[in-house]
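The authors assume throughout that readers already know how a fold can be written as discrete tokens. For illustration, here is how one protein appears when written out as sequence plus structure tokens:
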Amino acid sequence: MGHAHHHHQVSGQRLGLTIVLNVVITLGELVGGILSGSMALITDAAHNFSDVLSLIISYIANRIARRKATLRQTYGFGRSEILAAFANSVTLIVIALLIVYEAIERLISPVSIQSDWVIYLAGGSILLNGLSVLLIRQDASHNMNMRSALLHLFSDMLTSVAVFAGGLIMKFYGFYQVDAVFSIGIAAYLLYMSWGIFRESLGILMQFSPRQMDLQKICSRITAIPGVSNIHHIHCWQLDDHKYIFDGHIDLEDDICISDFEKILKQIEELLAGYGIEHVNIQPEFTASHSKDLIKDHGTRG
């Protein structure tokens, strides 16, 4: 049974337009923050600048991921997108922590700022970030790398909402600590949302078994196949956002010929295909005397 794998192609045109929009937001808020004396706008500009960097990284990574496998890169470049997702999530965590620090500083030492600048520029940022989210939303539904970029954009839109609300409150009530309170709440949300992508991308890079795979159940089903007496020394990992790989050793009940083993192998491949595993490597054994542990203990090297 053949199993085709389709790598989602990210729209370069939509992503390029999103990058341009975020450059406009960054420059506008930076200039506005300097002129108005608003740290909130400058902080939001810094956040938007991180969006620009993450989008550029995402674009480059997706282009690299399309390259074909070679004799030196036998798996191709698909993992470059996972690296980008990991880098983006780490960046977002760091930015969230910096926002908390700056917000605490503003709570302790509030300053008077020109609230009109804050209202207009934050409102513009909300509109442009919202448009950016719509532009890459479809790509993000199929791609972890683009999900991390989308999270950057959506989180910055929420930050701009808080800055906008803070500008209104400062204009009509003169309560300058309000934007700091909103910033802390948003930073906590960013940490919560970015942690999932950080953990997932780190697990892939460390070649942990996919969280949704019940390997005990899978191995039990393999040993239930007629002719198979044992499976051991298994590995299961995720190459990129969609591709899963499984390898292991099986003990055969009889000393069979290769054509008979291939019939057993086909049953194993069809079973694993039901779990989304498309790349399977099985080593058959009959009289091998090494350990039969499900997971091989590689020990430590002195």
Notes: The beta strands are 228-238, 244-252, 277-285. The chain has a mean pLDDT of 83. The longest helix spans residues 79-108.
